[in-house]
Amino acid sequence: MSNIAPPSAQPEILPEGAIPAATLVIMRPSDGGGADDILMVKRSTTMAFAAGAVVFPGGRVDPDDYLVARQHAPDLAEADGAARVAALRETLEETGLAVGWPALAEGDVAAVRQALLAGTLLSDILAARGDRIALESLVPFARWCPNFKEARTFDTRFYAVAAPPHSHELTVEEAEHSHIFWASAAETLAMADRGEVSVIFPTRRNLERLAQVTDFTGFSVHSDQFPVELITPWIEDRDGQAFLCIPGHLGYPVTSESFDHVRRG
User: Fold this and answer.
1) pLDDT tens for residues 181-208?
2) CA–CA separation, 60 vs 83, rounded Å?
3) Residue 112 lies in a domain
4) Helices 201-210 and 185-193: crossing angle, nearest 10°?
5) What DSSP letter does each residue of 47-107 carry, written as one string?
6) Do the domain assignments include residue 1?
7) Which is nearest to 179 in space by CA: 88, 25, 45, 43?
8) For residues 26 and 173, what is the distance between their CA atoms, to the nearest angstrom?
9) Number of domains into which the chain is organized
10) Alpha-carbon distance 214 to 144, whole Å?
11) Cβ atoms within 10 A of the Cβ of 158, count?
12) What is the mean pLDDT of the chain?
């Protein structure tokens, strides 16, 4: 393992070869009351990164995402806009849930999803339909770029959004995922603690952050209180034991974990 200096000792520089990516925390009121449910997907055990882990929907940013962002949200910074597009596109591909696409009728979702999975560009689909996507509906709240030799390096921007109304069943895209479910942040953490699901370090830290609030509105207020800064975890020796650490000023209630217990990818 390579020791990574804490933010105070290094400038904000992306690791070489970091892959731009985006992930989306989708929140909806729980049927039983209490904290909002969050949409989670379990990655296939055959995937190279985070195999078998429970994660939020998302994936890498594609070149076409930049074009869509320029067309639909020219005022956003290029990287932010493209990441928002990727978050919406990947969520639709992976789960069948169309977020931030108000003109897409529920009866058309399956066909658009299949077109994307077959390789049709999102920009072409939007142009053919004459639709606009609502990138402003996403709330940015984090940016993570773990740098471990054991895993691919992703520069991932995190967004939150309220789940749109839908009546169709959500299904995973089987090439990448094996299971899909809704659960509160606290419930998913409890499942991880019982060994029922596996979560990687960034997912656990963000679930802990989400568990501090009860609903999307509350999380939006919380997110507005903290800057979105690049988080590259570092290893710190504490009395002979290695801990994986993150900064303490970005809204996370837990900022370190024993390196022996961490799942990195």
Assistant:
1) 999 999 999 999 998 888 999 999 999 9
2) 8
3) yes
4) 140
5) -SSSTT-EE-SEEEPPHHHHHHHHHH-TTS-HHHHHHHHHHHHHHHHHHS---S-TTS-GG
6) no
7) 43
8) 17
9) 1
10) 23
11) 26
12) 88
- Give yes or no for a contact between 135 and 69, defined as CB atoms under 8 angstroms apart: yes
Between 262 and 204, the higher pLDDT residue: 204
Classify residue 181: in a domain, yes or no: yes
Amino acid at 229: E
The CATH number assigned to the domain holding 118 equals 3.90.79.10
Per-residue model confidence (pLDDT) at position 72: 95
pLDDT digits (tens, 9 = 90+) for 91-133: 999 999 999 999 999 999 999 999 999 999 999 999 999 999 9
Q: How far is CA 69 from CA 74, 79, 264, in A?
A: 7, 9, 31
For residue 2, being part of any structural domain is answered with: no
- Type of residue numbered 151: A
CB 212 within 8 A of CB 130: no
- Give CA–CA dist 5/235, Å, rounded: 7
Write out the residue range of the structural domain in which residue 164 sits.
7-261
